[in-house]
Amino acid sequence: MENKPFKGVCQCMKLKIVWPSLVVILFSAMEAPADTAKLGPEMILNGGMEAGNPPEKWKTVNDVTLSADVNPGSGEHCLKIIQSGKKAGLARQDVSTVPGKKYELTLKYKCQPDSTARIEGWDHKNGRNLFAEHKTEGVWTVYKYVVTIPSGCESVGILLYAFGSGSVVWYDDVSFKAIEE
Ligand SMILES: [Ca+2]
C-alpha cells in the first residue's frame, strides 16, 4: 500500500520522459527522405511514347514488333513490344554520355504473364553491358538505376527487351538524365 503513491509518481515521470521522445519519433517519421540530387535535362526522345505508332525515335533490333498501345503508365500511350523470333529482340535509343559522370535511368514496365522484360545499358565504346536486369512484374512498375559512365564511353544504348520467344512487354515514361554533383 505504501508503495502505490511512489509507483504512481514513477509512472507519471516515465510518461513525462517518454512523451517528448514519442513526439520526436513521430516528427522524424513524417520527414520526407531527402532527394538532393540535381538532374540535368531529359536525354530520351519520346520517352512517354505519345508520338507515333510505332512510337517515334525507337529503333528495333532483331525480331520484335513495336506498337503504341493504350492502358499506359501515364499519358495516353505506351510502347508494346512483342518478341516474335528466336533472338532476343528490343527497342533501342542511344544517348551521348560523358565518361566519369553519373546518370539516372527511370522507366515504367509491365509484363504479360510468363513474359520477361530485360532492361539494359550498352556501352558502345567498350562493347559491354553497363547494367542488365530481368523483370517479370505484371503491373506497371517503376525501375530506377544510377550508372557511372566508364572511361571512353561516350554513347550508351538504352535497350528495352521483350526477352524470350513470345514475350510481350510494355514500357512507358523512359527517362535518362545526368546527375549534377
Ligand atoms: Ca505514355
Summarize the structure in words:
The structure is a single chain. The protein has 181 residues and is an alpha+beta fold. The protein folds into two domains: 1-31; 38-180, Galactose-binding domain-like (Jelly Rolls, Sandwich). Helices cover 15% and strands 45% of the residues. The chain is built from one helix and eleven strands. It has one helix at residues 3-30, and strands spanning 38-39, 59-61, 64-69, 78-83, 89-96, 102-111, 116-123, 128-135, 141-148, 155-163, 168-180. Strands 1, 3, 4, 6, 9 and 11 form a six-stranded antiparallel sheet that branches. The protein has a five-stranded antiparallel sheet with strand order 2-5-10-7-8, with no helix packed on it. Strand 3 and strand 4 form a beta hairpin. The protein is globular. The protein starts with a helix and ends with a strand. Mean pLDDT is 86; it is low at 1-10 and 22-34. Residues 48-50, 72-75, 77-78, 172 line the site of calcium ion.
The CATH superfamily of the largest domain bears the name: Galactose-binding domain-like
- The number of distinct helices, counting runs of at least 4 residues, comes to 1
Oligomer: single chain
The overall number of domains is 2
What radius of gyration results from the CA coordinates? Answer: 25 Å
How many E strands? 11
Largest sheet geometry: 6 strands, antiparallel
Q: What ligand molecules are bound, each kind once?
A: calcium ion
Spans where pLDDT lies below 50 across 5 or more residues: 1-10, 22-34
Shape: globular
CATH architecture of the largest domain: Sandwich
Which structural class fits the helix and strand makeup?
A: alpha+beta
The ordered H/E elements are HEEEEEEEEEEE
Q: What's the CATH topology label of the largest domain?
A: Jelly Rolls
* Percent range for β-strand residues: 35-45%
Distance between the termini: 67 Å
- Roughly what is the average pLDDT, rounded to an integer? 86
